[in-house]
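#structure-requests
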Amino acid sequence: MPDLGRLSRLLAPRSIAVVGGAPAERVVQQCLKLGFKGPIWPVHPKRPDLAGVPCLPSLDDLPGVPDAVFLGVNRLATVEAMGVLSRIGAGGAVCYGSGFAEAGDDTLQESLLAAADGLPFFGPNCYGFVNTFDRVALWPDEHGCASHERGVAIVSQSGNVAVNLTFQQRGLRLGSMITVGNQASLGSDDAVAALLDDDRITAIGLFLEAVRDAQQFAEVAERAAAKGVPLVTLQTGRSAAGALIASSHTGSMSGRAAAYDALFARYGVATVRTPAELLETLKLLDNGGSLPGRRIVSMSCSGGEASLVADRSDDTALTFEPFTAEHAGRIEHTLTELVSVSNPFDYHTFMWGDRAAMARTFGAVMEGPQDATMLLLDAPAAADNDPTAWYLAADALADAADATGGRAVVVASLAECINEPFRIHIAGRGLTPLLGLSEALVALDAAATIGAHAGSHTAPIRHAPVVAATGTTLLDEATAKRRLRGLGISVPDGQAAAHNDVATVAEAIGYPVTLKALGLAHKSEAGAVRVGIRDKEALAVALVELPRTEAGYLVEATVTDVVAEILVTVRRDPPVGWLVSLGFGGVTTELWSDLTHLLAPVTAAEVKAALARLRCAPLLTGFRGRPAADIDALADLVVRLTDAAIAQGSDIVEVELNPVLVGRHGATAVDALLLVDHPSTEASK
């Protein structure tokens, strides 16, 4: 394991060594460009200098022990050099070379770790980092980071994406960029943990492909929340479904993204989907922090713009609540009778160019309960345009914000419609210029997500760790339901029976009954289910029509108290955790794809809150005069099932109950798919 106590030496070094040719020379150039004040020791056996700095022939010739070292040599030389650095007590390293685990050579990467012997390093296959706060760039390429005294940091698992992000022209104070490469030693979580020790960091963005250790991620996220440093994540590779979930309905509806989203939501980490959204969100957080709520007022001088805001906000959880009569009256006093007051608010152009008049109206708008006020303002950008009136509008908003103390942002519907001079002017007035309407709404929503987590005042219960199954065995439904009954989960009275015994078992259970052919994962699709068989004559017909399998049949009492059908799934989703999925159940589950997700363990209150997020939630609460469902019984079932799955020694890999029939009194799992880690003695009985 790397010595994380030494990580500050690597990230904020007082001395630097660079080893190699062209990549190492570019590192020297970048450090000199930033104004690094400490010694830089290039190491090359043949070259006299790198970027004008004299070279040493080998690491053994260093005049001192470097805090940070950039290794820009081939993979075999990287391993050899790492052993020397560990022996002399260097602070840490960046391993630029490739051809390790990313190319399938795990053995060589293990050799690199062994050579490091606890010395922390980023990589291999890594672009390194830029730290403008301390004027250092172990970075073998151009970057767009400017020097700042405070600002945001980004940690990226992709070197090229990191390079692209540094070239941003959005006015983001990007002070630090760290790439982690293969994460053989230091990972994304280690980088975030180190950044949290730096009071100059206002927010941290993450470009992730996967988490290496979900428990460590949770610990770091908890630290960030406690310190008030927002985390924003852009995660890629979201569409691939896990190999262990192919046999379930849930698996076909939710890929690997579901567990990650549940992880981020549990610990108050905001999520975005594009690089532009990441940058705009970080910019908003850097200038004013998170939002206490999601209530937004939008102002524009066009009904079309107001409609755009309303339409685009549908993809967020932001609310544009109507003004109260009293608040609307105060706004109306600043307007002509031709302007109607609503939210989003079209203030028209009668006051355009009159800073004082606009400030009065904007101030009246901002004297309300909203959490943020946005002004849509696309300005002319060409050199022969006169943007004076647009500057006046921005100044009027700033005047109103100063007078009311409210949070205000200027939003361009198109990113290119706030050019650099205008952006600098807006920022100089203390406002945040957000570039792009969709990106701005996502940024506001993300800031509110972080604020809601910070305002909860209770730390989340740490989610349960998970290990991947060695293999899986699918239990037949009768066996699965025996196990569920033993866990306290309500299932119909029933019994497995051979073909010739079905009628006798049905008489003993009592009609109406449900008949299922065993040995099939999805019985409805195979025509292997008959529900509500009322007598022995109908049972005889069903026996002829159902497929005949060697596994026999399951005869069960038909549940008649049904208000809603709900899907409940608990499954291992490594490396994240145990994913609990709730959704619209029944044979049309995949058609509606109405799902929400949590990480285990869960509480009854969390389950109820998750159910309320479903589109089908009204079916549980008395839709159009129908009776309300027993939500307490459903929540209890979910908690019991989850606790059993994650219990120590559990062999459950995935359990899907579809549907759970929720009645006026009680909740019953009438179908069950249970995968267990094999070998399973129960499956072989």
